[in-house]
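Archive maintenance. Older records in this collection stored only the sequence; we are now back-filling the structure field for every entry so that each record is complete. The fields below show one back-filled record exactly as it appears after the update. Entries are processed alphabetically, and Nitrite reductase small subunit NirD is next in the queue.

ARCHIVE ENTRY
Title: Nitrite reductase small subunit NirD
Organism field: Rhizorhabdus wittichii
Length field: 113
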Amino acid sequence: MTGDWIDVGALVEIPLRGARTIKAANGEEIAIFRTAGNRLYALVNRCPHKQGHLSQGIVHGDAVACPLHNWRISLSTGEALGEDEGCVPTIPVRADAGRILISRIAMLATLAA
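Back-filled structure field:
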């Protein structure tokens, strides 16, 4: 842990256009995505539609397709795209010296809600 940021692993552990998950203290999963453009995003790992595991979806640009019903979710806002409605909580994430860091305060606040 680095102050307000939690080190959750090496950047190279997530392939481009891929994801990995981490368990939060309350049992919830956080999905961390890495886009083809090498941007990182973190979301609670459940689609707002049918609770599908977003980490198992396909990353297209800055969105992920839910593996259950193909809902597209914005990785930056957590909002469902197109005509679908719903939102999944996002958590600030960044890379530093090849490590992935997520916001401790934001993660705790998101999971407590």
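Update note: The CA atoms of residues 10 and 99 lie 4 Å apart. Helices lie at 104-112.
Entry marked complete.
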